[in-house]
Structure of ATP-dependent dethiobiotin synthetase BioD:
Amino acid sequence: MLTQVFVTGTDTDVGKTIVSRALLQALAAQGTQAVGYKPVATECTETAEGWHSKDVQTLQAASTIDLPYAALNVRSLAEDEPYAAPADGTLLRRMSDGLATLKARAGCVVVEGCGGWWTLLDAQHSYADWVVAQQLPVILVVGIKQGGMNHALLTAQAVINDGLPLLGWVANRINPCLAHYAQTIDLLSHKIPAPLLGEIPYLPRAETRELGHFLDLSLLAR
C-alpha cells in the first residue's frame, strides 16, 4: 500500500502540481485518505494570511483531509526572493517535522518537490538529500516538450543512482503542438526503467479539473 510518495519533475513548470493533484484524486477514488504536501513553494503572492502559493492551494483543495495552509507548506517564497535557505539545517528539520505530522493524519502523503531533482534547499543540501533521508519512493513527471526527453532520462537515472525506488513516471503534455508526441512516449517507455502510470493531456486550467482517471495506480504494485 502506498503511504508516501515524492513527486519530482524534469524541471520547473512541467506539471508536478497537476500530477500531484491527479495522484490525490486517484487515491481518494480508491478510498485512501490522502493529503498533499509542498514543503517549499516559490512564486507566491502576499495575502492577508501571509505569502501563499497557488500550487499549495491546489493540493489543499484536492486533499481528502481538511487542513490549514500552514500544515501543507513550510516555506513560501516571493518570486524575487532568494531560494536557498541558511545552511543550518533548520529548513530540513521543519520539512521533516511537517511530513511526520501529516503521515500521522493521512493514509498517504503526496509530497511535491520544487524545481528539479537536485534543486538546492540550502548551500549544503539538495532536495534529493532530504528525499533520500526520508526514504520516499519517487514518481517522475515528464513535461513533454522540446528537450524533455534528455531531462527525463537524466532525472530517472539520478533518482536510481541515489538509491530510491522509481515507482513510475507520468507524461504531461504541456505543449499541444509538439510533433511526434506518440513516438516520444514510446521511446521514453522503453528507456525509463519504471512503468508509465498515465498521460495527462493538454487541458486549460488543469488545476481545477478531475484528473485522477488519467492515472493507473495498479501499475505501482507491479
The first strand starts at residue 4 and ends at 9. The chain has one domain: 4-221. The beta strands are 4-9, 34-37, 40-47, 50-52, 75-78, 108-112, 138-143, 166-172, 196-200. The domain at 4-221 is CATH 3.40.50.300 (Rossmann fold).
